[in-house]
């Protein structure tokens, strides 16, 4: 009788073990598929995002910088670059457009490299404004004045913090940092630079407000000029994808293997992007896409999925907040379809 019970126990134990192995394997297979999409899936989703939104005509090319109004408005490109450096593309991904405000988090990263993360907190600030990217009001109601490195005033302050003996040296340092991030040789789109330099009175006002509050760290007009050059650097969607992939890869450029940003600064950069990357639409972006990202009035947006990939959209028609309409839609679509929302899938 006892023997019979023991045999039955062993059978139950064996089937429980088989069941446990099955459960564990199922867990790893499904977790694996969520964390490592196949190349086919990534290419398919990029193509889908492109096709789905290519006919959207909402928004218009920015015209407060006259040269930007001349960019062909129908251009549209979508890119995923993985943290390993593999690129998946659709549309106009080799057209060089001006990086504009997408440059801002990268210059903040350079400042962190030189002076540490605390310097950004102490000398600029990290608070989101809920206001437009060039809001003078924000500089008057937020005690830090410079506000955060992703609005114009804070970005001009960032530029002024890059250690250099001259404006020329400061700009060259920024350009060479961007070259390292993209693994490419970038250059200024001179027509965009001239056009913005001739019309950037508002940014000059920001420079003087910062100076009046001791919140700028080089000559203010020099900082505004270097900032304007930085915004005029030309990038393709693919190159911007690689810059984002360097953030996704803990600061190491996956193409060149060069460590560009110390990994301890990457979460700080992404935190600022999450809170302020879309200015007065940052809350909505967190709600819909759930990813740290940065927009530019040239039509580029880069979003970062830490450890996994960067997603880039490029489309010159922007909305009132200065954010590219089709790029927003394409990245939101990819984030949802691939379950990339950092706050969870909600499933
Ligand atoms: O300073 C400016 O106004 C431009 N160079 C950059 C603004 C910008 O890209 C706003 N972002 N969407």
Alpha-beta classification = alpha+beta
Across the major sheet, the strand order is 3-2-9-8-7
- Tally the beta strands: 10
The whole-angstrom Rg is 23 Å
Order of helices and strands: HHEEEEHHHHHEHHHEHHHEEEEH
Range of helix content: 40-55%
Total number of helices: 14
Overall body shape: globular
Tell me what the structure shows:
With 347 residues, the protein is an alpha+beta fold. Helix 2 runs antiparallel to helix 14 and helix 3 runs parallel beside helix 6. Helices cover 50% and strands 11% of the residues. The strands form 3 sheets. A 5-stranded antiparallel beta sheet has the order 3-2-9-8-7, with helices on both faces. A 3-stranded antiparallel beta sheet has the order 4-6-5. The protein contains 14 helices and 10 strands. A hairpin with a 3-residue loop joins strand 8 and strand 9. The site of 6-diazenyl-5-OXO-L-norleucine has 13 residues, from loops. 6-diazenyl-5-OXO-L-norleucine binds next to loops.
């Amino acid at each position: 009788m006892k023997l019979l019970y023991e045999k039955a126990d062993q059978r139950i134990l064996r089937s429980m073990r088989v069941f446990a192995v099955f459960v564990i394997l199922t867990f790893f297979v499904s977790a694996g598929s969520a964390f490592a999409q196949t190349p086919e899936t990534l290419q398919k989703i990029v193509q889908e995002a492109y096709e789905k939104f290519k006919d959207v005509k909402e928004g218009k090319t920015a015209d407060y910088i006259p040269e930007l109004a001349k960019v062909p408005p129908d251009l549209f490109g979508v890119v995923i670059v993985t943290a390993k450096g593999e690129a998946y593309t659709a549309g106009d991904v080799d057209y060089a457009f001006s990086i504009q405000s997408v440059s801002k988090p990268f210059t903040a990263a350079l400042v962190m490299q030189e002076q540490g993360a605390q310097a950004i907190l102490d000398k600029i600030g990290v608070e989101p404004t809920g206001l437009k990217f060039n809001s003078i009001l924000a500089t008057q109601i937020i005690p830090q004045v410079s506000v955060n490195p992703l609005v114009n005033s804070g970005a001009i302050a960032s530029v002024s913090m890059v250690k250099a003996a001259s404006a020329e040296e400061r700009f060259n340092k920024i350009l060479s940092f961007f070259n390292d991030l993209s693994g490419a040789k970038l250059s200024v789109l001179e027509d965009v630079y001239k056009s913005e330099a001739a019309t950037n009175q508002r940014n000059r006002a920001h420079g003087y407000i910062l100076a009046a509050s001791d919140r700028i760290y080089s000559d203010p007009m020099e900082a505004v000029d270097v900032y304007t050059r930085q915004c005029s650097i030309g990038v393709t969607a693919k190159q911007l994808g690689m810059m984002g992939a360097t953030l996704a890869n803990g600061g190491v450029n996956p193409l060149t293997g060069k460590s560009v940003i110390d990994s301890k600064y990457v979460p700080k950069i992404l935190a600022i992007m999450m809170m302020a990357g879309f200015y007065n639409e940052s809350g909505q972006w967190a709600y819909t896409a759930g990813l740290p990202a940065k927009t530019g009035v040239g039509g580029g947006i880069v979003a970062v999925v830490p450890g996994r990939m960067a997603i880039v959209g490029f489309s010159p028609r922007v909305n009132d907040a200065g954010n590219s309409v089709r790029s927003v839609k394409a990245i939101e679509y990819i984030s949802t379809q691939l379950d990339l929302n950092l706050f969870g899938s909600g499933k």
